[in-house]
Design goal:
With 135 residues, the chain is α+β, with helices and mostly antiparallel strands. It has helices at 7-15, 18-32, 61-66, 82-95, 115-128; strands at residues 34-40, 43-44, 46-49, 52-57, 76-81, 99-102, 111-114. It has a single domain, classed as Uncharacterised protein PF11572, DUF3234 (Trna Endonuclease, Chain: A, domain 1).
Length: 135
Amino acid sequence: MHLAPTTTEFQFLEDANSEDRLNYFLTRSMECEDVWGLHNESGWVLKEDSGDFILAVWNYDILAAECAQGEWSDYKPDSISLEHFIYHTLPQMDQQEIMVEILPSPQKPGLLIEAGALFEIFERKLDTVEYFIEG
């Protein structure tokens, strides 16, 4: 497990397609057991696009920090446990119809996915690799 992306990973993310970015997010989030977002005293940053509310997530604080600029400049990276994200946050977001944006960067939008779909992907991935969250 490592706590920051390597130079190779930064280069990979610049050119990676949506599927590769999703797999990278899943794998590294499972290794670190955290998911990062941007947060301030008002709560997590949500953006709105065509009436949809979207929560941006990253697998490392440094990737989230890169996006804490412009209208998000008063937000700071903050993490939640992977277990809480999967079993509490995603179902709540699904119920509220909030989308998830995976690994946006200042240069490139992230992959948009429904919270329920991301929950199912995590569930399959966790079952497939026989990974168990303690708790």
